[in-house]
Automatic annotation (TrEMBL):
This protein's name: AhpC/TSA family protein
PROSITE patterns per record: THIOREDOXIN_2 (PS51352)
Pfam families per record: AhpC-TSA
GO MF annotations in UniProt: antioxidant activity; oxidoreductase activity
Source organism per UniProt: Ensifer oleiphilus
InterPro entries tied to this protein: AhpC/TSA, Thioredoxin-like_sf, Thioredoxin_domain
Length: 225
């Protein structure tokens, strides 16, 4: 499988249709719901157990109003079982958030985002990462972390700060997809990727990061016109 990996979808690629259970409304949501109607920003995240993803989702929700003014919808996808996800958003509501549950990470695979495996000593980015390599990645979040920390220490600190309790559903998602790489894809009204931001870059520089607002809004303006 790995030798045929072509990386995440790139600008110019046609997004596949994926049908998912809706979290914030009844029924299902699919990529084809938007195709032919309006552009959509699709955010594919790890489960809500990931504190970095919770912050990315909140940042995406904050831009929803500005994007809607440009005629662009937003869709957040999390690999969290639907009941657990609905419970979270009931207590942590994000106005206008359109979200879907994808515990099997079907959408992540369809958009070319690999599920990174942590190994004892083998590095083969973006498919395998040695634990010592991951531990050497220091995350610096001024105002949220007291100092730069490795991903696991940072996650534990942020979970405690958020009051997020890991439940059985979360544990199942972590066991299967702790290293699931994430990304955001801006699709035009025909469902063609026009901009993206993913953790699956060649150098891994975007790990645990967020897209620059200016870059995303510039791409949104181009898609809107």
């Amino acid at each position: 499988m790995i030798e045929h990996y072509n990386g995440p979808l790139q600008p110019g690629d046609r997004a596949p249709n994926v049908v998912l259970d809706a979290i914030t409304q009844d029924g299902q949501i699919s990529i084809d719901d938007f195709r032919g109607r309006k552009p959509v920003l699709v955010g594919l995240f790890r489960g809500l157990h990931c504190p970095f993803c919770r912050r990315q989702i909140a940042a995406m929700a904050q831009l929803d109003g500005v994007l809607r003014e440009k005629g662009i919808e937003s869709l957040t996808v999390v690999n969290t079982p639907i009941d657990r996800a609905r419970l979270y958003f009931r207590y942590h509501p994000l106005p206008n958030l359109l979200a879907a549950s994808d515990p099997e990470r079907v959408s992540h695979r369809a958009f070319g985002l690999p599920n990174l495996q942590f190994t004892e000593d083998e590095d083969e980015w973006p498919h395998k990462l040695a634990k010592k390599t991951a531990m050497a990645m220091l995350i610096d979040m001024p105002g949220e972390l007291p100092t730069a920390m490795d991903p696991w220490a940072a996650s534990a600190f942020l979970d405690k700060a958020d009051g997020y309790e890991i439940m059985q559903d979360d544990e199942r998602m972590i066991a299967a997809g702790e290293g699931q790489l994430v990304g955001e894809f801006l699709l035009d009204r025909d469902g063609i990727v026009r901009w993206s931001f993913t953790e699956a870059t060649a150098d891994g520089h975007n790990m645990f990061g967020m897209p620059r607002r200016e870059e995303l809004m510039s791409a949104a303006s181009n898609v809107a016109h």
